[in-house]
Amino acid sequence: MDTPLTLAERGLLLAEARQAVADALAGRPPRPVEPGGPFARRAGVFVSFHHRGDLRGCIGHPDGDQPLASVVPSCAVAAATGDPRFPPIGAGELDACVIEISVLGPITLVTDPAEIVVGRHGLIAEQGWHRGLLLPQVAVEYGWDREAFLARTCGKAGLAPDAWKRGAVIRKFEAEVFDDSGVRGRNV
Prior knowledge:
Blueprint: H1 7-25, E1 45-51, E2 54-61, H2 68-81, H3 91-94, E3 97-104, E4 108-109, E5 122-127, E6 130-134, H4 136-142, H5 146-156, E7 169-173, E8 175-179, H6 181-184
Antiparallel strand pairs: 1-2, 1-3, 3-8, 4-7, 5-6, 5-7
């Protein structure tokens, strides 16, 4: 992982995510974000929205090929308005939502499932055209052990739960996860 973001840098990223969504909901064009400071870092990102403790959207870009200046706002808008599992967040809902950002570290191949640490690692399962990703906090939220986490990640990819034993490629990553619950009242 890169050097952890400071509290101030986390606050800037969260504020930019919220502003990007507010602009999109109001029909305003996206504001360009200067790719300096924390916004210059190239990393994979997932942005999640929670309303009253329930997930309301989560979209990400796991490849670390874009600076946070572009990937955080675009993932925030997509999570708020384009996650096909949920209706779009309305302008009146945005202030009540908690935004959570996961900044991904390097993605590495898992050669032995014993190296996966639940709560520390997120997983990606791939086989053929199938690909699924679960963030590190998901296994903790559901109380999964390593094997359940592997099975659920395979399931997210549309694979059989035991595909990790039968040729699916498994990759792991760490993530720096933070949210604006201090302002909005949600614990992660």
